Amino acid sequence: MTGTPTRVLVLNSGSSSVKYQLLDMGDGGRLAQGLVERIGEDTSRLAHTPLRGGGAKRERTGPIPDHAAALKAVAEELAADGLGLDSPELAAIGHRVVHGGLRFTEPTVIDEEVVAEIERLVPVAPLHNPANLLGIRTAMAMRPDLPQVAVFDTAFHTTMPEAAARYAIDVETADAHRIRRYGFHGTSHAYVSRAAAKLLGKEAGEVNVIVLHLGNGASASAVRGGRCVDTSMGLTPLEGLVMGTRSGDVDPAVTFHLKRVAGMSADEIDVLLNKKSGLVGLCGDNDMREIRRRIDEGDERAALAFDIYIHRLKKYIGAYYAVLGRVDAVVFTAGVGENAAPVREAAIAGLEELGLAVDADLNAVRSDEPRVISPVYARVAVAVVPTDEELEIARQTFELTGGKVTRTTNA
Q1: Rounded mean pLDDT of 89-99?
Q2: Tens digits of per-residue pLDDT, 18-48?
């Protein structure tokens, strides 16, 4: 190897899984990717795919007891492709961290103080931050000499004004318990809003965009000149749009009602709203493809679930149009947003007075490339921009640790 190391390993550690990608920031290309799942079980599985050199996908099954063993297995798979964690070409490791609170407003080199602060945020992200910390501690133990960077899902949304971020509850209580709107999916919203500006031939600071990240989890953001000014998720990822299994917006008094009238505990209500609501609660399915198939067969429950999903989506488009005042583009991304043409069509239908329209032929095209799907006469562009959170994490990690990205795929 000659010159500056350009490879970045991106780790997304869950409670029982580790997703990873190895990228070369010299050209923005991927070298390998994979997933370790069911960590701690006898049926653990690692699926690894080399992305250069023509190697075949490999799988291994069997007990992987903990995250240390998982990362060791990942290192072995990468080493088999000549891409090991001991390579001098590895510049840094970037970690997805879900919650950074108000302190972490940008990517941050990890040290013991940063680890301690991420741990202090566990009460507001009990499902995610502990798992993220497992990955961080494991990677730091394996490569203590290598820069490790935390990229926070909440960071992009820390530019929201207080009028958008504050809940209208007692200020002292809110501050004592860190209750405010933080937002999530920020890495995706950052990447997509910047890529949308590029698609329009402009700089991010010149455009106002509404980003609709529609996957099993879903969120919207209003981005003015490259800075988030509002987003649909709040203290937790439960608030906002209708999602696969999450309710999104509900009257807070629903929780009191369920406790008093149905005798449900706080934990039972938590499970109901986060895992048994949204599309799955409305019609039993959270796969938009299956819901559309059922609608085509005349299923009324599926049709109602779709209508509720679209109604909420339209409300947020309208609300964020009002927040921004001027909108240059409405952008769809993530699994549903990128692939479900009927969702895009229905969400924009009836918004012609706002300058929004969808061209049916353009909307029907399936592509992995960013594209405009609105007709040429539309005042506001409607676009589809595939998200790339791993590339965004790698870019932020590499730039923070002294590298310079020379080319990336979309943004």
Answers
A1: 94
A2: 899 999 998 878 999 999 988 889 999 999 9
Q: Do the Cβ atoms of 220 and 231 come closer than 8 Å?
A: yes
**3-state SS string for the chain:** CCCCCCEEEEEEECCCEEEEEEEECCCCEEEEEEEEECCCCCCCEEEEEECCCCCCCEEEECCCCCHHHHHHHHHHHHHHCCCCCCCCCEEEEEEEECCCCCCCCCCEECCHHHHHHHHHCHHHCCCCHHHHHHHHHHHHHHCCCCCEEEEECCHHHHHCCHHHHCCCCCHHHHHHCCCCCCCCCHHHHHHHHHHHHHHCCCCHHHCEEEEEEECCCEEEEEEECCEEEEECCCCCCCCCCCCCCCCCCCCCHHHHHHHHHCCCCHHHHHHHHHHCCHHHHHHCCCCHHHHHHHHHCCCHHHHHHHHHHHHHHHHHHHHHHHHHCCCCEEEEEHHHHHHCHHHHHHHHCCCHHHCCCCCHHHHHCCCCCCEECCCCCCCCEEEECCCCHHHHHHHHHHHHCCCCCCCCCCC
Q: Is the pTM of this model over 0.85?
A: yes
Task: Give the model's pLDDT for residue 409.
Answer: 41
Per the listing, tokens 């964690």 go with 85
Q: Which of 24, 27, 111, 153 is catalytic?
A: 153
Per-residue model confidence as pLDDT tens digits over 229-269: 999 999 999 999 999 999 999 999 999 999 999 999 999 99
pLDDT surpasses 50 at 1: no
Annotation says 145 is catalytic:
no
Residue with tokens 């919203």: 189
pLDDT at 84: 87
